[in-house]
Design a protein that fits this description.
The protein has a domain of 86 residues: hypothetical protein PF0899 fold. The chain has a three-stranded mixed sheet with strand order 2-1-6, with helices on one face. Strands 4-3-5 form a three-stranded antiparallel sheet, with no helix packed on it. It is elongated. By secondary structure, the protein is of the alpha+beta class. It has two helices and six strands, in the order αβαβββββ.
């Protein structure tokens, strides 16, 4: 089976951000409408470093998708959550260093991801 080209990999990644941005904008518009808002001024997003979401791509898609909506010109704010792991053996919580996913206390590799996969809209600001 042939390997995907670099450009096809980029398209898949970009489509991931497109669908996330489309869903986020739809939810923001729904919530703004429920509140009787005339304009969305800011959308606050939380992204984990393991989410695979590229903020710059979300920003670009948002500018395109939000053009003819009450979200046009709204600022996007990104809060990045670091990776936090918990050892299943000794319960130690830690951030992996140098991509080493082993407990720094006991060396165990059976770990739980506590934080880092987040991808959600925390809040919107409206007028």
């Amino acid at each position: 089976m042939p390997h995907p080209s670099h450009s096809s990999i980029i398209k898949v990644v970009n489509m991931h951000e497109y669908s996330i941005t489309e869903s986020m904008l739809s939810l923001a518009l729904e919530k703004a409408n429920d509140a009787g808002a005339q304009k969305i001024t800011r959308i606050n997003l939380v992204l984990g470093e393991l989410s695979g979401v590229v903020g710059e791509c979300v920003q670009q898609y948002f500018e395109i998708l939000g053009r003819d909506t009450i979200a046009v010109g709204a600022a996007l704010s990104f809060e990045m959550k670091p990776t936090l792991l918990r050892c299943r053996k000794c319960e130690k919580e830690f951030s992996p260093a140098d991509h080493r996913w082993a407990c720094p206390d006991c060396g165990e590799i059976s770990l739980e991801i506590v934080s880092g996969r987040e991808c959600y809209m925390e809040s919107i600001e409206v007028e």
